[in-house]
Structure formats: structure tokens, C-alpha cells
Input
Amino acid sequence: MKININGITFKNPIIAASGTFGFGKEYHQLYDVGILGGISSKGLTINPKEGNAGIRVYETASGVMNSVGLQNPGVEKFIAEELPWMKQTGSVVIANLGGGCLEDYIAGIELLNETEVDMIELNISCPNVKSGGMAFGIKADVAYEAVKAVREKCRKPLMVKLSPNAENIIEMGQACEKAGADSLSLVNTFKGLAIDIKQRKPIFNNLYAGLSGAAIKPIALRMVHEVCKNVRIPVIGLGGIYTTEDVIGFIMAGATAVQIGTANFTNPLICKQIIEELPGFMEEIGIENWEEIRGVIQ
Output
């Protein structure tokens, strides 16, 4: 079940996705989150953020829309109060780092460099903040400059999280690899719109919000497949993963590991169940190891 990403051993390929798992404490009340391959932290910014006002989560057909706005305690408080607990779980700790500008990213990186965080997931793909985030994740040349600047300062393995709203997802992946990313994760949420027809206004104060859940899986799977065929670094796939079969599908598309997000809201035990099911399921369908099936879909 073990995998290796950028020199770090994960006990299995199941990672809890950023923004859907907090720092793991709430889920730990339900099961030992130490069984997870890794946990990607709630999206962090250099300064604390209260997040967006108004409705933040809205259910839609086969999915969920969210406009949380990176509510978080800030990097320093994360390091002091959340990281020690996360490290003692035994899961690989991935710090998801966002920012309103390049200087914010650099400041966050410099603080995280001095910690026991195992990896940094650079979030250039959040559609729910008005500055930074998505601005870096649309154009490949802009992303290249941002990742290059961060890479020069970062002393941890650097994973870059890509937006499906990028102008060209293949060029985006290649640009991030060229800029020095050690691995990639994709996809984040799709930019969408929900309308309250009775009130004649948008559901979300920010107008647009991020769509995730089962509805996006076929598109996410296609994008992961495209990027995996065109980069040489590991890719972590996410987007609509709810079942053991979904995990296998993403790995067959070329992913080294997966992140599970929205499904945690539907079933808080979903990661635990998939981890427990995977060995028997693999044996049942004749898979002996991950390398045997990774990238078999050409």
C-alpha cells in the first residue's frame, strides 16, 4: 500500500484534501486519522482570515458549492497550535499555503521552512478569494513566475495545486514543473454560479463559488490524465472521489496518489472505509502493486 512522493513515504495513497478536513482533529473523534497516508491542512495565509461573509456552502446536484474564503488562523498560529498535534498522528503533514500576493507566499514559506511540516502544497488555485490564489492559477506564465520565486525560498518538497479554470491545464502543469515544482495536485474546484430565483440574487456574496463533488469527477479525471502524460513529476489526483473504484481509476489515469475532499462531508468515515477496502479490492481484481496499474490508460 505504501507510495513515495518526492522522497517521502506515505503508508497508503489516500490523502485528506485541504479545506475539507480542517487539521484533522474533528475527524479524529470518529477514527484514528493516523491511518491516512497524509493530511493536507486547511488553506493557510500569512495572516489570519475570517473568510467570506454570507452563505459558504450550498448543495447542488451531485455536488457542493463553497465560498469559504480561506478562513484560517494564520501560519504562525498553525505552527504553534495545530502542527504539533498533526505531527503526532503519524500521517504525512502537508501544509496548504495560499496568499493574496507573492510576498505573502514567500513570508509563509520562510516560516514553514523552519518547521516539521513534511511538504508544502502551494495553492494557486482558490476561486473563493478576490486577490491572489486564482489570479496565479489561470495563466501559465504567471504561475511559472510565482512558483519559481517560491521554489527559490522553499526548503521543503513543493507540491503545486492547479486550478481546472486554468487557460490550458497541460501548459499550466508543464510551467509549474519547469519552475521547480516537485509534484502537482489537481484539480481544485470549478468556478460556478448559483442563483436564488425567489430573491432574484446570487446565493453567494462573492457571486461565483467553487463546485466540487461527484459531478466534477469525469472532467477532473480527464485533466489528471492529460497532465500525467505531459509532465515527469508525480501528480496527486482529486475531484469527485467517493469510492475505492474511483481511487483505482485516478491511479490508472497516471496519479501517484489521491486526495479525498467533498466526500468527507457526505460520509465522515469515507477515507477510513476506502483504506480498509483497498487491499481486498486490489486482490479481487488482480492488482499486486501500484506500479502495475499506474498510467495504464494511454
Observations:
- The mean pLDDT is 95.
- The chain has one domain: 3-49+70-189+214-293.
